[in-house]
Design brief:
The protein is mainly α and 111 residues long. It has two domains: 1-52; 59-111, no CATH class. It is built from four helices and no strands.
């Protein structure tokens, strides 16, 4: 009887470890697509707390920037290099505009 209970305990422990690992991976993946700042704005602790139609109205500023000769320059770069360049530019510009928290950056190139 003790052996059966011990085996069951080990099995439950392993299952719990697996579920914890899966939950950690899910949380990490969720943060890549839904920034923590967005959840804070909605006053939600987790993506699981967000429901269809949840919303807030808030005054925000939008910064638009045009990079001279960006298309020609980017045609000679890999997607990863382009993203790194844009992140570096953003990091340099953000402090000079007094940006405290950025929710997301929309990057687009128009021909």
């Amino acid at each position: 009887m003790a052996l059966v209970l011990a085996n069951r305990f080990v099995s439950l422990h392993d299952e719990t470890e697996h579920l914890n690992e899966s939950l950690s991976k899910f949380n990490a993946a969720s943060r890549r697509f839904v920034p923590f700042e967005f959840l804070n704005m909605l006053e939600k602790k987790s993506i699981l707390d967000v429901n269809l139609g949840d919303q807030i109205q808030k005054e925000m500023s939008v910064l638009f920037s045009d990079i001279r000769a960006f298309t020609a320059m980017s045609e000679k770069m890999s997607p990863k290099e382009i993203l790194i360049l844009l992140i570096l530019i953003y990091q340099k510009l953000a402090p000079s505009f007094g940006i405290i928290t950025a929710l997301s950056i929309n990057i687009s190139a128009m021909p």
